[in-house]
């Protein structure tokens, strides 16, 4: 396959012809079974490499009675124990700063990214220069599939901090040859400035989270600017579900009159665009030659058949500094078999990553994912821009409450609107939901990932007290 070797080596001067559909035609369109044979050989290379250099992996595999030489098929690879994020955190705590799964000398690390640490000890990502360039080349490939070209101006409108997503988008656009505008986000007043800079600089491609794109559109209107007239032709996203959720996707596409592309996996796995769209439609391809993705049964971590739901397990095929080998995501998705009709012979996730196993909650026996509520609420024409999902308890029964902003034009007829919305939610979720209408701009907007779920078992009584005359 073009430019596929171990360790990875890329020609940074290479770029397809302007009208080319593929960055690497053979890699992207070859028969999937033939690619799988090459992926198996690469997995052996990666496992041999990690066995020789990483006490973390060698110890984990020895305990499981597995040696890289025992992997003769992709089915054998399913026997390799998964890695959990808490294991990585614990290993880094014992082997600071990068953990014993670092496979290069510490002095070779030239870039540091990481998690925020909001849910525990932050995890540091140590990246050598080879991996930095491999990620740039990989992201350029996927962005090329999205139709982004050197003539574009790409606005990176997510925080330029430890967050890998911003830097991956930045170096990918740079490698592709586009003009890169790393404006960032997260500072007070930044969104208003973003809108005016977008107009001034002629931004044609926008990258952020879906929530922030909706916020930019909202602020543009308050500034007297129609977001559809900003000139953006493509928007691509990561960081949270949304770009493959029909109602959210439609709101963004309609606001900017532009194409919408989904992408993204986990902070620990970069190139994170290995789950990336190649067409203006919901869903993402699994670019298996970048990161081998298995959609697995959450109970036994073996692959589920195409057409079924499971949790992705990721193995990086081009990372030399901190390779991830069967990293468990705990996300949720459903996959479909490769089809050349999509232009590339990779497995397809028609709804992208649409939730997390640990985000799921149960109300009266029904499994409910926040993205299902988001889809219903955001599709309503009277929806005002933000909402909160509240799990509460009345006596011994769990109750679902959705506080939803409504448009100012709705006036005082909010109860009828709330009842209609509650009916739509019941039809989709299978359980009743109390919808509490609130005025527009009640909730804070975010420049990063939206956090909409609140588990408060006494909240319903408080809400009813607020409604009482």
UniProtKB/TrEMBL annotation:
Keywords: Ligase
Name of the featured protein: Phenylacetate-CoA ligase
Record-linked SUPFAM superfamilies: Acetyl-CoA synthetase-like (SSF56801)
InterPro entries in UniProt: AMP-bd_C_sf, AMP-dep_Lig_C, AMP-dep_synth/lig_dom, ANL_N_sf
Keyword Manganese: no
Single GO molecular function: ligase activity
Pfam family, one: AMP-binding
Keyword hit for Ligase: yes
């Amino acid at each position: 396959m073009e430019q596929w070797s171990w360790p990875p080596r890329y020609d940074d001067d290479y770029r397809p012809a302007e009208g080319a559909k593929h960055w690497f035609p053979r890699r992207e369109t070859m028969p999937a079974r033939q690619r799988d044979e090459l992926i198996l050989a690469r997995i052996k290379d990666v496992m041999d490499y990690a066995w020789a250099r990483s006490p973390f992996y060698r110890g984990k595999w020895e305990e499981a009675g597995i040696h890289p030489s025992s992997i003769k098929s992709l089915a054998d690879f399913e026997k390799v124990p998964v890695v959990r994020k808490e294991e990585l955190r614990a290993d880094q705590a014992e082997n600071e700063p990068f953990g014993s799964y670092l496979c290069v000398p510490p002095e070779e690390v030239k870039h540091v990214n990481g998690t925020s640490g909001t849910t525990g000890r932050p995890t540091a990502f140590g990246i050598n220069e080879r991996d930095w360039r491999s990620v740039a080349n990989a992201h350029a490939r996927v962005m090329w599939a999205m139709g982004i070209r050197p003539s574009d101006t790409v606005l990176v409108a997510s925080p330029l901090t430890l967050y890998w997503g911003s830097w991956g988008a930045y170096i990918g656009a740079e490698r592709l040859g586009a003009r890169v505008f790393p404006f960032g986000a997260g500072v007070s007043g930044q969104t208003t400035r973003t809108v005016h800079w977008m107009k001034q600089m002629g931004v044609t491609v926008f990258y952020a989270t879906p929530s922030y794109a909706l916020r930019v559109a909202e602020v543009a209107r308050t500034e007297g600017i129609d977001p559809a007239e900003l000139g953006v032709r493509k928007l691509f996203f990561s960081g949270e579900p949304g770009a493959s959720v029909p109602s959210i996707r439609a709101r963004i596409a309609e606001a900017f009159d532009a194409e919408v592309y989904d992408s993204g996996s986990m902070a620990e796995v970069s190139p994170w665009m290995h789950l990336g769209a190649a067409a203006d439609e919901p869903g993402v391809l699994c670019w298996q030659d970048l990161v081998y993705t298995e959609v697995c049964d959450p109970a036994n971590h073996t692959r589920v058949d195409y057409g079924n739901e499971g949790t992705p397990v990721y193995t990086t095929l081009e990372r030399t500094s901190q390779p991830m080998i069967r990293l468990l995501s705990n996300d949720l998705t459903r996959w479909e078999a490769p089809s050349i009709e999509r232009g590339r012979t990779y497995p397809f996730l028609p709804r992208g990553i649409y939730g997390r196993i640990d985000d799921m909650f149960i109300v009266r026996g029904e499994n409910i994912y926040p993205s299902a509520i988001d889809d219903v609420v955001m599709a309503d024409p009277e929806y005002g821009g933000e909402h909160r999902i509240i799990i509460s308890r009345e006596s011994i029964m769990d109750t679902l409450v959705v506080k939803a902003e409504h448009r100012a034009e709705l006036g005082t007829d909010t109860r009828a609107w709330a009842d209609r919305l509650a009916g739509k939610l019941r039809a989709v979720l299978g359980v009743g939901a109390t919808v509490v209408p609130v005025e527009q701009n009640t909730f804070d907007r975010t420049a990063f990932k939206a956090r909409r779920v609140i588990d408060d078992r006494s909240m319903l009584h408080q809400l009813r007290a607020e409604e009482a005359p």
